[in-house]
Amino acid sequence: MIEPHVPAPPGPPPSWGAPGGAGAPAPLPVRPGTGRFLVLAGVFVCAACGLVYELELVALASYLIGDSVTQASVVLSVMVFAMGLGSLAAKRLRRFAAAGFGALEAGLALVGGSSAMVLYAVFAWTGGWGGLWADGPRVLLVGFSLTIGVLIGAEVPLLMELIQRVRRQDPGGAVADLFAADYVGALVGGLAFPFVLLPFLGQLTGALLTGTVNAVVGAALVLGLFRRDLTRRARWLLLTANVLVLALLATATVLADDFERAARHAVYGQNVRVAVRTDVQEVVLTGDADGRPLDLFLDGRLRVSDSDERRYHEALVRPAMDGPHARVLILGGGDGLAAREVLRHPGVRRVDVVEPDAGLVRLARNDPGLSALNEHAYGDPRLHAGTADAFRRLRSTPSAAYDVVISDLPDPDITASTKLYSQEFYGLLRRVLAPDGRLAVHAGPVADRPRTFWTVDATLRAAGLPAVAYRVGTRDARDADLAPDPGRAAAGLHAPAPRGWGFLLAARAAPALRLDPAAPRPRTLTPESLAGGARDAARTRVPGLPPSTLVHPRY
Asked: How does it assemble (predicted)?
């Protein structure tokens, strides 16, 4: 039975936040029904903001560190654990529910709203994830997850107390109302992040705006609805704290664009010429002016370096073209550089490029520097580019449709690419290959990550595509183990450069590793270097590895 609302006795409370006691009715400026609705509306907004903070940490960690599965697991598990700690800690604040909730929301708005900017600043100005600060940013990520989780967890007991102080009801009904508003708010926040905040505002401004909303709603709820529950000193302290938080968030929002440009220069150097956020990833081009080499970065990772890209693309494409090659499929390769090598071979009638990022294709087609590097491959009438998921495209492709397939995809241990190195995926590739067709796979640096490389080999064999392995060293193979890659150094990524690239040439029967004698001579690749690369790769073999599948990825 719902008890009537009884005003609290007059008299100043004994502390800065009035201790009303558990479930004691609060002196409200509105009717209890309206007050209850306003509290639940505050629960809804705060839950939406809390989930945005969680998703923002996951997204930023995946972009800066990589391996999205690991980063999501770390952030979410730490945050859920911290929410439990926050709930326990909030028990001591129940007697001061209104003041405690107001202080809590101000702190959460500041920490959650600024988290993306702080993490990106650490990444940009401490040399990435290498050197002395190798583990510092990761520790900071866990610290933000822990702090935000504690603050979110502390909201629930305080909000429960506020609902009961508006109008007493049975605990089960109050819990049901609270969690209904909380879960619906989480749904809205979870959908708003990928579909509104991220594409239209970006991670930095989106997080700052979320913090602003969080602070405004928290302050309005406490100072508007429960202001009589606070002393004059408490009201001024909360008002001052929220004004400072909003001023900091507003200043950061105004400076976000300048900050992002400065951080990008700190990461990529001063030669940034193009920086765009496509629907799929961040694409950055540096150099190609005043004699500076062109480098292409995708989501912060060096994908193309002008000084070495020809060695990579010739090694990827040329051995696969020694045989029938009228119909060629390139998976990935939106930069057009693999297509450049394919189109040099006589007898090529059609080249299909399946690239998930239409923005990268437009850049490769129209950017003067990148289109010059790919020798205007997209202007060749034989080339047809499509934007599609590779899995979906292969499932709708007729059998034996291609003589050659070039898999120019990111390394298999990047989570987004793992399914494209699975036994199921290679089974689809085997179906679309002609009986005497060939498949070339970039499988990561064999010398640096031999277990990953030979897992790709085992997966190909499990799909009925025995392969021959080979590697190609960097531009100066003698110093590759010691010298940092210049593109990685410019990006602040001081980890040692890969000691070359590893490739697998596969077919229905074990293929021979040769170059097409009818094609123009490669600039960097020779039959002798190719044979030497096969011997080098064979020495790194890790036997007995199981294949990787969709339900059991092993990279």
From this structure: Homodimer or homotetramer.
Angle at CA of residue 304, ends 361 and 402, nearest 5°: 55
User: What is the tens place of the pLDDT at every residue in 168-209?
Assistant: 777 788 889 999 999 999 999 999 999 999 888 989 999 999
Burial status of residue 122 (CB atoms within 10 A of its CB: 0-12, 13-18, 19 or more): middle
Ramachandran category for residue 353: left, alpha or beta (phi over 0 → left; psi -120 to 50 → alpha): beta
Q: Residue 488 has what pLDDT?
A: 39
Domain annotation for the chain: domains and CATH numbers? 32-261 (1.20.1250), 305-538 (3.40.50.150)
Structure tokens at 128: 């990435």
Asked if residue 355 lies in contact with residue 332, where contact means CB atoms within 8 angstroms, the answer is yes
- Alpha-carbon distance of 72 to 490, in angstroms, equals 28
List the binding residues for S-methyl-5'-thioadenosine. Answer: 281, 355, 389-390
Cα 155 to Cα 150, 210, 224, 238, 289: the distances in Å are 9, 17, 18, 16, 54
Cα–Cα distance, 548 to 458 (Å, whole number):
8
Q: Mutual orientation of helices 97-125 and 32-65 as an angle, nearest 10°?
A: 20
What the block records as the tokens of 378 is 């997209």
Distance CA 521, CA 505 (A): 20
Please name the residue that has the structure tokens 């060293």.
Answer: 473
Q: Which parts of 316-474 are beta strand (E)?
A: 327-332, 350-354, 383-386, 402-408, 433-442, 467-472
Say how far residue 250 (Cα) sits from the centre of its chain: 26
pLDDT tens digits, 258-287:
999 898 888 887 788 898 888 888 899 998
| Residue partners of 125: CB distance under 8 A and separation at least 6 | 263, 266
Q: Which run of H or E residues covers position 121? A: helix 97-125
The alpha carbons of the chain give a radius of gyration, in whole angstroms, of 29
Measured distance CA(381)–CA(370) in Å, rounded? 19
Active site residues: 408
The pTM of the whole model exceeds 0.70: yes
